[in-house]
Structures are given as C-alpha cells and as structure tokens.
C-alpha cells in the first residue's frame, strides 16, 4: 500500500475539515444553551491506579463541580476492557447523564456503551478512543503530531542511527496504537534510513510488567540505541532503571510521554534529555465540559463550538483518518532541563 507523506496527510485533513465545516455551517454553530445543573457523570479511566489517569479524573471533577454537577470515578485496577464493563453497567443503572471513558480496547466496550446510550447516557471518550457509534473523542493532541514528534525527538538525540524499540502500554490501547502507527510512518522517511525499529514491547501500564519487558528488551538487543515509551508508566519505569544502571546511558537514549512531576529527577541528573506531554488535568477538564454540554443538549456535530470554562472555546472536528468526531486539547509541551521546573503535574 502506498503511504502518504505526513505533510500530505495534514493537507488532506485540513481540506476535508474546511469542506465539512463549510457544509455543516448552516446546521452547526455555537452551543449557547446553558449547562443543566445537577448532571451526573461517570468517569471511567483506563484504571484507578495510574497517576496520569488520577490527575485526568480530577480535571473531570473540577469541570463538573464548576457547573454544579457530580462525578463518580469507577474502573478496574488493570487496563482491560473486561475490567471497565461493570463500570459502564453501573453508570447505566444509575441513569448517569454521561460517561467519560478512556478505552482499554477500541471495540470491546461498544455493546455496553450502546446499552447505556439507549438508556439516555451520552458517551465521551478521552485519552484512548473507542470505535463505537455516536460518541465524541477528546484527543489530548493531534495524533499524527504526537507519533511524528516522538521519533523526531529520539532521532535528533541519537544522530538518526541505530536500533530503537518502543515500550508501550496495553497492546489493545487505541491511543498507543495510533501513535505507534504514525511513528512507523515517520520512520519511513529517508533521514531515518539508519534507524531501525526492532521491537515493540507492552508493559500494560503496570510498573512491574513494564520493568520485566524492559529487561527482556535490553537483553535481547544489546546494541539498542534508543527507546520511545509513549506512556507515563513506561517512561518512568525505564528512567528509574537507567538511573540506577548508568553505564547503559553510554549507548541508550530514552524519550517518550511522561509526567514532568515524575520525570524531573531524571531530567535534572541527565538520565533523560527531553520528553513530551500535555496537562492531563486539562484533558479531563475539557472532557468534563464536553460531556456536560452534550448532556445539556449540544448537538453531536462537526463545527459545533462549546465553552470549556477556563480553557476557552473548543470546536468539534469532523471525522478524519479513522477517528470519528473529536476535539483536540492542544499541542504537547516538550520538557527538558531548562523548563521542567515550571510544570507541576
Ligand atoms: C499513560 C497512559 C495514557 C497515556 C499516557 C501518556 O499514563 O497510557 O493512556 O495517554 O500514558
């Protein structure tokens, strides 16, 4: 299959968006209805333990409390669809106005979500999308940009040379797999001809599993030059290991997506030079406002604009490249020694 260059993909997406917005201009607009008070929302993160998810849940709570609503956080302790199903069922039984879910699987949750929807519950996905009908995805940042920039960050640091690997989260996570897809596309460019992706390992967003698969990687690929870990749990685990095995730093460079609060010691002592992320609290907050707006009558339509409290206004984007209707929080921040002190999430 012929692959489009990323720049071409962006151009195609922008044209599609312009056409869709123009076409929808007569029907979509600014949601001016007021948010209903007393809304009840179920926040269903990937799990209830991962600090990243906890920060995002707090963002959801902050949004709902500022519009007079309430949030029940419910999920499993492992990142599987099966662990999330009881929470969706609980939301349905409680007649929640909306569910905000980070999908551990793209399709497995759809039957339960459809049942909740037919009982009147609106569905918003965030962090990791689901492929189910009639929902809005709150994306942390442009998916393509995240994938490309991760490879660019690593490429620059290792001189575009050597074997590289990815330490991911769950093999079924939509967000991880979408980012990895764009990493692979980026790696096809000529400047990466001497950089080879040799392996993807999955740590399931558990520190212990992440460490086990990291050790497997290091012993199977002694010449490994770089690791991208697009998960806050994976990158922290890897940074911790490299920090206590400093001889590995002579040939291994680590980057990925991490929480600045967790990564600061490793950046300050030089174990990690640069990595990225967005503010997970803002992601949850935006998802909270999107859910509250939908539950208050905002049409689920491309071009529709809604207010997200302190974050300002956001517009629903049309479907593009396998993602349905979505809203993008904004570009990620690259953290390094110069700026990491300024971020406390
Ligand atoms: C982990 C999770 C989450 C992802 C972040 C970057 O905490 O996998 O889904 O968005 O990392």
Q: What does the model show?
A:
The chain has 345 residues and is of the alpha/beta class. It has 2 domains: 8-18 and 25-141 and 279-330, 3-Layer(aba) Sandwich (Rossmann fold), CATH 3.40.50.2300; 143-277, Response regulator (Rossmann fold). Helix content is 40%, strand content 18%. Strands 2-1-3-4-5-13 form a 6-stranded parallel beta sheet, sandwiched between helices. Helix 2 (51-66) packs across helix 10, helix 5 crosses helix 6 (174-187) and helix 7 crosses helix 8 (232-244). Mean pLDDT is 93; it is low at 1-27. Alpha-L-rhamnopyranose is lined by residues 46, 50, 52, 127-128, 169, 175, 205, 231-233, 257.
Proportion of strand residues: 15-25%
CATH topology of the largest domain: Rossmann fold
Count every helix, treating DSSP H or I runs of 4 or more residues as helices: 10
Strands of the widest sheet, in order across it, are 2-1-3-4-5-13
What's the CATH architecture of the largest domain? 3-Layer(aba) Sandwich
Biggest sheet descriptor = 6 strands, parallel
Shape: elongated
> What gap, in angstroms, lies between the N and C termini?
41 Å
Determine the structural class based on helices, strands and strand pairing: alpha/beta
The CATH first-level class of the largest domain comes to Alpha Beta
Number of DSSP strand runs: 14
- Mean pLDDT comes to 93
Q: What percent of residues adopt helix (DSSP H or I)?
A: 40-55%
* Heterogens: alpha-L-rhamnopyranose
CATH superfamily of the largest domain: Response regulator
Q: What's the number of structural domains?
A: 2
Low-confidence stretches: 1-27
């Amino acid at each position: 299959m012929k692959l489009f260059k990323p720049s071409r993909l962006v151009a195609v997406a922008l044209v599609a968006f312009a056409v869709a917005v123009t076409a929808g201009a007569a029907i979509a607009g600014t949601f001016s209805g007021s948010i209903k008070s007393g809304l009840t929302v179920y926040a269903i993160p990937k799990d209830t333990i991962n600090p990243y998810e906890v920060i995002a849940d707090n963002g959801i709570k902050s949004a709902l409390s500022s519009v007079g609503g309430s949030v029940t956080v419910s999920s499993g302790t492992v990142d599987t669809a099966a662990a999330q199903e009881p929470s969706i069922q609980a939301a349905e039984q409680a007649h929640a106005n909306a569910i905000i879910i980070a999908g551990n699987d793209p399709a497995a949750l759809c039957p339960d979500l459809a049942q909740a929807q037919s009982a009147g519950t609106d569905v918003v996905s965030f962090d990791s999308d689901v492929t189910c009908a009639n929902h809005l995805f709150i994306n942390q940042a442009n998916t393509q940009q995240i994938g490309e920039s991760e490879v660019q960050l690593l490429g620059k640091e290792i001189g575009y040379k050597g074997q590289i690997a990815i330490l991911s989260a769950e093999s079924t996570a939509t967000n991880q797999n979408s980012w990895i897809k764009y990493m692979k596309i980026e790696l096809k460019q000529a400047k990466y001809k001497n950089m080879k992706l040799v392996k993807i390992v999955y740590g399931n967003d558990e520190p212990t599993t992440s460490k086990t698969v990291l050790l497997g990687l290091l012993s199977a690929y002694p010449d490994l030059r770089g690791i991208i870990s697009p998960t806050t749990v994976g990158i922290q685990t890897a940074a911790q290991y490299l920090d206590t095995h400093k001889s590995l730093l002579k040939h291994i460079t680590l980057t990925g997506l991490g929480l600045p609060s967790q990564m600061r010691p490793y950046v300050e002592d030089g174990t990690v030079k640069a990595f990225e992320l967005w503010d997970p609290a803002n992601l949850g907050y935006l998802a909270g406002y999107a859910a509250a707006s939908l539950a208050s009558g905002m049409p689920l339509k491309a071009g529709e604009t809604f207010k997200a409290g302190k974050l300002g206004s956001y517009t629903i984007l049309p479907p593009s490249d396998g993602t349905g209707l979505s809203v993008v929080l904004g570009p990620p921040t690259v953290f390094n020694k110069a700026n990491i002190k300024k971020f406390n999430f």
